[in-house]
Amino acid sequence: MKKAVFLDRDGTIIRDMVYLNDPAKIEIFPESYEAIRLLNEHGYIIIVATNQSGVARGIVKESVLKEINQIIADKLKEQNAIITDTYYAPDAVDSGSFNRKPEPGMLLEAAKKYEIDLKNSWMVGDRMTDVEAGLRAGCKSILLQNETTPAIDEGFGRPEIIAKDLLDAAKIIIKKGKK
Q1: CA–CA separation, 121 vs 140, rounded Å?
Q2: Domain extents for the chain?
Q3: Cβ–Cβ contacts within 10 Å for residue 178, how many?
Q4: Residue 3: its pLDDT value, please?
Q5: Residue 173: φ, ψ to 5°
Q6: Is 130 a catalytic residue?
Q7: Active site residue 22
Q8: Which residues pair with 116 in a beta bridge?
Q9: CB 57 within 8 A of CB 92
Q10: Distance in Å from the first CA to the final CA of the chain
Q11: What is the three-state SS of 9-32?
């Protein structure tokens, strides 16, 4: 079984542009490169799991979403930071979709496909829905607190750790993985 780090996309790997629909506006956080590379070097596969309700709302074209996801993966790969796969939920917020976080569908689907040991894996994101999806899938979760992070919502499970950014989270995951 493989160990994985599931990553939210917007606000975690890239700046959250709110319904990003223009590949020219992708802004990968500088620390994302080192963070993902370090996790790769320590045996973690990286799976992106991102809610993208802009598709259901007609704001983001699904073809453009796929292009954006591929550009992000390609730019990271240029720096030896490898994303194994990207899953997205194009569903509306109120759709009840099992794939839309806080539901664990994307994580469970990836776990089955890549033979991931969920107990030894992590979910990292900047929203409580990310934390909750990880917990529901059986992972440990880290909440990133940045300029777009809403307050911790008591309606969700608590993150195991709060980190300042993805690089901080990666270092914590690696340290905990050595114990």
Answers
A1: 6
A2: 3-177
A3: 7
A4: 97
A5: -60, -45
A6: no
A7: no
A8: 2
A9: yes
A10: 18
A11: CECCCECCCCCCCCHHHCCECHHH
Tell the residue number behind the tokens 């899938």, with chain if given: 137
Classify 3-177 by CATH class: alpha beta
Measured CA distances, 17 to 21, 30, 43, 131, 172 (Å): 9, 16, 31, 21, 27
pLDDT digits (tens, 9 = 90+) for 35-70: 999 999 999 999 999 999 999 999 999 999 999 999
Which of 10, 16, 126, 130 is the catalytic position? 10
Q: What six digits make up the tokens of 24? A: 């020219």
**The pair of three-digit structure tokens given for residue 129, joined into one six-digit string:** 């829905």
Alpha carbon distance 161, 152 (integer Å): 12
For the chain, residues with pLDDT lower than 70 are 147-151, 153, 179
Q: Tell me which of 8, 16, 91, 126 is the catalytic residue.
A: 8
Predicted local confidence at residue 146, as pLDDT:
72
Q: What was the pLDDT predicted at 177?
A: 86
Query: What is the identity of the amino acid at 4?
Result: A
Task: Show the tokens assigned to 106.
Answer: 């994307």
